[in-house]
Amino acid sequence: MFGFANPERFWRLSAILLPWAWAAAGIALAVGLYLGLLSSPDDYQQGATVRIMYVHVPAMWMAMACYAFIAAASLVSLIWRHALADVAARCAAPIGAVFTALGLATGSIWGKPMWGTWWAWDARLTSVLVLLFLYLGYMGIWAAIEDRTKAARAATILALLGAVNLPIIKFSVDWWNTLHQGSSVIRLDGPALHASFLYPLLTMGGAYGLLFLALLLTRMRTEILNQRIWADQRRRAANEELRAQPEGGLTNG
Amino acid sequence: MKPVLSLFFRDVRLSLRSGGGFGLSVGFFVLVAVLLPLGIGRDLVLLETLAPGLIWLAAALAALLSLDHLFQADLEDGSLDQFFFAGEPMELLILSKIAAHWVTTGLPLAIAAPLLALLLNLDPVHWPALLVSLLVGTPALSLIGAATAALTSGLRRGGLLLSLLALPLFVPTLIFGAAAANRGLGAPELLICAGISLVALVLAPLAAHAALRLHVS
Fold it and tell me: Could you say which of B158, B168, B172 has the minimum Cβ distance to residue A133?
């Protein structure tokens, strides 16, 4: 892991990995969408509407996985001062926020025909909405503090404080009487879905995961470039200041 | 122990003096309760049903407003740096500040709650549940709020960011507190609310300590 703390090395590795990640994401997405939207059966109760599951459920998986990733990266940053962990967490946040928003939107679209309402204040929906605000707050604190190192430390604390929401989201359907259905895939007894639904769902889950990886690597590379530009600008500004001083330097009046 | 106690009394005294903001949070609390029927409508039956939740909401917002200045003044005049060298564990000093905040915010709100209950037509039979839920839940608000206030202390426009950070973290306390106020004294939600306060009692000073280190360095 510490080998990857070197930005140069990360730059080279990600340059190799990135095209493959995009390609794999594209293929998995194509296969998953075909399987989900065209080749899988209708549900006996929901009919064709069940196909929203193939975009809604993976989005929500990724929303939670992204936050778990941010919390883990924050922990790594806190304990080992890993240089790229902060960058990774910062870059993952907008991706996670968009996944959460997409999940909420697709869930809402699914809820209207199924439950008769666009929204309900049950435990699962409320805790996911709170997750969205946690993402926004996390992005806000990065933006609010100018010093990069200070911002990283503050964001770390915030990410770990908010991580308490993740088990609440996961177990909300077990702990409370919710409108949202219970866990069907990630349970102790194994998935309760039939294979004809499960395999397209898992394919889409994998596709979203690969998409996250590709987007994350792209954002991290951009962030490293940004830091180089910023450091370069500071260096130039410092050089100009030195040159602008009259002969004799600091001792002059 | 002495620095911890003297810090507590200092903060309480500062808050009680003019400009300290003691009356302001209670005043805001009462004002919100006055505005609510103007917005919702004067139907007394409706107000009675909504009263416990609305009072809890007003308490959460009032707590939020006074959190902004919790660490601000000490950060600006440099006394926060001195706390790190006080010889007492920083977490205890932070706890004494939070305790002072609660005594001047959460506790008065809980005491003023029956007045609001009167304005919102809540039957006096329900007042004990409301009072106890506020007494048990407002420490959680002070603690969690203090941890986020430590993160945003010293920032320009930190107040807005504080609201964005603190309110999602207030949500569990608000949900269980309002449910406890609605259900009555025997409700399990009251115990959960107490549990949240206790967990926050342990974790919030740790988080606040880590956050204050950043702004002091």
Answer: B168
* Spatial distance between the Cα atoms of B56 and B58, rounded to a whole number of angstroms: 5
What are the pLDDT digits (tens) for A67-120? 999 999 999 999 988 879 999 999 999 999 999 999 999 999 999 988 888 988
> Which DSSP letter does residue A47 get?
B
- Interface contact A134, partner B, CB < 8 A: yes
Q: In chain B, how many H helices and how many E strands?
A: 10, 0
Question: Is A148's Cβ below 8 Å from some Cβ in B?
Answer: no
Picking from A137, A157, A165, the nearest residue to B164 by CB comes out as A137
How far apart (Å, rounded) are the C-alpha atoms in residues A147 and B154? 13
- CATH C-level class of A20-236: mainly alpha
- Name B20's Cβ contacts closer than 8 Å, sequence gap at least 6: B14, B104
| Contact list, A134 vs chain B (CB under 8 Å) | 168
- Mutation to test the A interface, candidates B151, B156, B199, most A Cβ within 10 Å: B151
What would the 3-class secondary structure string for A228-244 be? HHHHHHHHHHHHHHHHH
- Tell me: the pLDDT tens digits for B19-55? 767 778 888 888 888 888 888 888 888 888 899 999 9
- Identify which of A140, A154, A165 has the shortest CB distance to residue B164: A140
Residues of B whose CB is below 8 A from A165: 168
State whether ipTM is beyond 0.90: no
Tell me how far apart the alpha carbons of residues A77 and A145 are, in angstroms, rounded to a whole number: 17
Pairwise CA distance, residues A171 & A182, whole Å: 9
The residue among A53, A68, A76 whose CA lies nearest residue A199 is: A53
Alpha helices (H) in B153-187, listed in sequence order: 158-183
Tokens linked to B76: 């600006």
What residue segments make up the domains of chain A, in order of their start? 20-236
